[in-house]
Specification:
mainly alpha, 13 helices, elongated
Length: about 280
């Protein structure tokens, strides 16, 4: 009885691990609602039910279409289309990267607002309160990450919590180098009694320039990724055109050694896509 329970438990853990690996955390109520009851964590992303279903649908349709264009076999296309259940894994990573990049840009705008408030003679705590008002003018959506974070910081200040503690918590949850560097510089300045305004100006300038360069790199990479997607789509468009315009010309590929040639070409395309994606994935 105990052996059976252990086997069932291990099987359940393996199944749950596979589901999480595929990006299906949203099916578990405890994970899908965790950010509504606690502070957001920027090192992970949980897809909602709608995002999960949409990514599975799109992935399955793309795989089915690509397979059918190559093999003209509906049964094989349906079987391979089941691999679309793993699509949420890639969608989750894309949305996480987008959210982290968006937080970086928002944090750069907040730094400029903080520096301006300090230059106007405000205290550091009041500068954060003023920055929150400035951010509300820039971002009208109350669910914007930087607005929520500055609201949390101001709430903690109202409850007599140290500013350093609130900023450390943000840096720990974000795991973004620019935010961590800013918090370290601010904490060191307050401990040593340095010129806070000068430190803030220098830190905001350096971090702002770094984020500007990263934004330019991301724009160039986005252009190259778009070109790569077009290059990957061209063979499939060409196959569909030939299948429609000259089916007799393509007929030899759908019997005997033709399937082997198609499989080799299909694998080569997948390898090319993997290499292009690997080259363009630059860690900022």
């Amino acid at each position: 009885m105990e052996l059976r329970d252990n086997y069932i438990r291990r099987s359940s853990n393996r199944m749950k691990g596979f589901v999480i690996w595929c990006g299906w955390e949203g099916v578990f109520p405890s994970t899908s609602s965790r950010e509504t009851n606690s502070l957001p964590i920027y090192t992970s992303y949980v897809l909602s039910r709608n995002e999960l279903l949409f990514s599975i649908l799109i992935g399955s349709v793309v795989i089915y279409t690509a397979t059918y264009l190559f093999y003209h076999s509906m049964s094989l296309s349906i079987i391979l289309a089941s691999m679309g259940v793993a699509t949420p894994r890639f969608r989750r990573q894309a949305l996480l990267d987008r959210r982290r990049n968006r937080l970086k840009v928002q944090f750069k705008e907040a730094l400029f607002s903080l520096t301006s408030s300090l230059a106007a003679g405000r205290s550091l705590e009041n500068a954060f309160r003023g920055a929150l008002d400035d951010m509300r003018l820039l971002y009208t959506d109350p669910a914007t990450d930087i607005l929520r974070e500055f609201q949390f910081i101001c709430y903690r200040l109202e409850n007599a919590e140290p500013l350093e503690s609130a900023l450390r918590d943000l840096a720990k949850r974000a795991q973004i180098e620019e935010i961590t560097q800013f918090v370290d510089a601010l904490s060191a300045c307050k401990r040593s009694g340095g010129d806070l305004l000068e430190v803030m100006k220098r830190a905001s300038t350096i971090i702002g320039e770094k984020l500007t360069v990263e934004s330019e790199i991301m724009v160039m990479l986005a252009q190259k990724r778009f070109e790569a997607k077009i290059m990957m789509a061209v063979p499939f468009i060409f196959l569909s055109f030939l299948a429609f315009a000259a089916p007799d010309y393509m007929e030899p590929l759908y019997n005997g050694i033709g399937y082997v040639l198609l499989t080799v070409v299909f694998l080569v395309l997948l390898v090319c896509f993997w290499i292009m994606n690997k080259i363009m994935r630059i860690k900022m």
